[in-house]
Design a protein that fits this description.
Length: 441
C-alpha cells in the first residue's frame, strides 16, 4: 500500500508510542548537539530527543536507532537510520516513518549531514521515508536513496557538539579571507550604500567581523557582528559556508548559511541551512515562495589567504616605486579571482600599479613596502663599469688611468738609467752608445 494516496482519502491519528530499537548509536554521538535546522538534539544510547517533525498533522518527537553503518575510525562518518516511535494509522493500517542521515566528519566536534530521501509533498516536504511495509522486509537501500532530486547538494545540515563550539571552528574559504567593503540587500531594501559597510577576516581567519560603526544594519541575524565558520563545502560553481552565531544572548537564529561566488564578490545568506533554490545572486525562498535572507555585494580591498596579504596599492608617481605606497583612498580594483597569479588592476587616475607577488610567500601575514624593493641581479650587473648619473668615474676608467701612469713611469726610469751609464763610462764607450742611439754630442 503506497503513501501518496493518503493525502486524498483518509484521516491520520497518532497511536501510543511504539519502541523497538534495533541498534545503539556510536559513542561519539553521545550527549547534546546543536542541529543547524532543529535546535538541540540529545543522543542517548538508543534514542534521540529534541528531533521534531510534523507529518500530515502528526508531530513526531521520539526517534529510535534502527540501523548504524560506518563510524569505524576516529575520523569516520557514517549513516544513521532512525525510526519514529509514533506511527500513523488509518483504516486499521499503520504507517511508519524513517529518517536516513548520512554524516560526514568535519572535526572532533562537528559533522555535516544530508537527509537521504526525496522530498515528500504529503509530509510537509520533509525528506523522510513513509511506508506500511513490515519492518523486517526493509533494507538500507529502501530507506536511503542514492539518486536524489536536483538541488540536493545545497541542503546540508550541521551537527555541532554543544559546549565545544570554539573548537569546532574552521578556516573560512579563500573567497572570504580578506578586507572587504559591502552593500547589503535584504527583502526590505538596500543598506550600506556606496560600499559603506566593512568586513574583515584576516585577524582571525575563522571569524567574519562586520564593523557596525560603518553600517549599523545587522548582518545574518548577529547583534555583535561576529560569525564563526563551522563548515565549508564547494558544490559546483558555488561555495557553501555555514556560520555559527556566538552571541551570548539567544539569537533569533544560531546558524546562517552563505552561498558565495567563486570570485568572492557576491554572496547570499539565509537562516538555518542553505536551500536548493539559492545562489550568490538570489534570495532563498520560503515554502510559500516568498524571498528570505539577504544578499551582499562585496568589494575586495585585500586578501589574506595562505597566510599572505595580497594588496593593490597606489603610488605617488607612475614611474617610480619610491616614497609612500600605502595610500589606498582612491584605489579601484577589479575583483580578485581565486587564482591571483594574473590579477589585473584598472588604470584609473591616480594611476594604479600592482606590486609583483614574490615566489615564496612569507609564513606570516605581511605587507610589502615599496622602499624595500630592489633591482634584479641582472640590472645590477648591467650597471657595473658605467659612469653614474651624477658624473662620477667608473671602476674601469680608474684602472685604465693607473695602467697609463705605470707605463710612463717605466719609460722615465729607463731614460734616467741610460743617462747615468753614459755619464760614467770612458769617452770611447760614450761615443759608441751615442752613435747607437743616433745622438750627436
Amino acid at each position: 500500500m503506497g503513501w501518496n494516496w493518503l493525502c486524498a482519502i483518509f484521516i491520520v491519528s497518532s497511536m501510543p508510542p511504539y519502541s523497538d530499537s534495533a541498534c545503539t548509536f556510536p559513542s561519539i554521538l553521545s550527549g547534546s548537539w546543536w542541529d543547524s535546522n532543529r535546535g538541540v538534539l540529545t543522543f542517548g544510547s538508543e534514542n534521540i530527543n529534541g528531533l521534531s517533525f510534523t507529518i500530515y498533522g502528526t508531530n513526531l518527537q521520539n526517534w529510535d536507532c534502527w540501523q548504524v553503518d560506518g563510524f569505524q575510525g576516529q575520523n569516520d562518518g557514517g549513516t544513521l537510520i532512525i525510526k519514529a516511535e509514533d506511527f500513523l494509522s488509518a483504516f486499521g493500517v499503520n504507517f511508519y516513518v524513517y529518517l536516513c542521515l548520512n554524516l560526514t566528519r568535519i572535526s572532533a566536534y562537528s559533522f555535516y549531514y544530508y537527509q537521504m530521501y526525496d522530498r515528500q509533498t504529503n509530509a510537509n516536504n520533509e525528506r523522510v521515508f513513509v511506508t506500511d511495509a513490515p519492518e523486517d522486509s526493509l533494507t538500507k537501500d529502501d530507506i536511503c536513496k542514492k539518486q536524489l532530486d536536483s538541488g540536493f547538494d545545497a541542503e546540508f545540515k550541521l551537527l555541532l557538539k554543544k559546549g565545544s563550539e570554539y573548537g569546532a571552528r574552521q578556516e573560512l574559504p579563500d573567497q572570504l579571507l580578506g578586507n572587504f567593503e559591502y552593500i547589503l540587500i535584504d527583502t526590505n531594501g538596500s543598506y550600506c550604500s556606496s560600499l559603506g559597510g566593512q568586513m574583515e577576516t584576516c585577524n582571525d581567519k575563522k571569524t567574519m567581523v562586520f564593523d557596525y560603526t560603518k553600517c549599523k544594519k545587522e548582518i545574518a541575524y548577529s547583534t555583535s557582528g561576529n560569525l564563526s565558520c563551522v563548515a565549508k563545502l564547494q558544490k559546483g560553481s558555488h561555495m557553501y559556508v555555514m556560520m555559527y552565531n556566538p552571541d551570548p544572548a539567544e539569537p533569533i537564529y544560531r546558524f546562517t548559511c552563505f552561498v558565495v561566488s567563486m570570485d568572492g564578490t557576491r554572496a547570499s545568506y539565509v537562516y538555518k541551512n542553505c536551500s536548493s533554490n539559492q545562489s550568490p545572486d538570489t534570495f532563498s525562498l520560503a515554502s510559500d515562495g516568498s524571498p528570505i535572507g539577504g544578499k551582499l555585494s562585496l568589494k575586495i580591498n585585500a586578501t589574506c589567504y595562505n597566510s599572505y596579504y595580497e594588496t593593490v596599492w597606489t603610488t605617488r608617481s607612475p614611474t617610480t616605486m619610491s616614497g609612500s605606497v600605502h595610500d589606498t583612498t582612491n584605489v579601484t580594483v577589479q575583483p580578485l579571482p581565486h587564482d591571483t597569479t594574473n590579477v589585473t588592476v584598472q588604470s584609473l587616475p591616480p594611476k594604479v600599479t600592482q606590486i609583483p607577488l614574490p615566489t615564496d610567500r612569507p609564513s606570516s601575514p605581511t605587507t610589502q613596502n615599496a622602499d624595500t624593493i630592489k633591482h634584479s641581479d641582472s640590472q645590477e650587473n648591467a650597471n657595473k663599469g658605467t659612469v653614474s648619473a651624477e658624473g662620477g668615474i667608473s671602476t674601469g676608467a680608474i684602472v685604465a688611468i693607473g695602467v697609463t701612469i705605470g707605463i710612463l713611469s717605466a719609460v722615465i726610469i729607463t731614460v734616467v738609467i741610460i743617462y747615468l751609464v753614459i755619464k760614467r763610462r770612458p769617452p770611447s764607450i760614450k761615443r759608441k752608445v751615442l752613435s747607437f742611439m743616433n745622438i750627436s754630442k
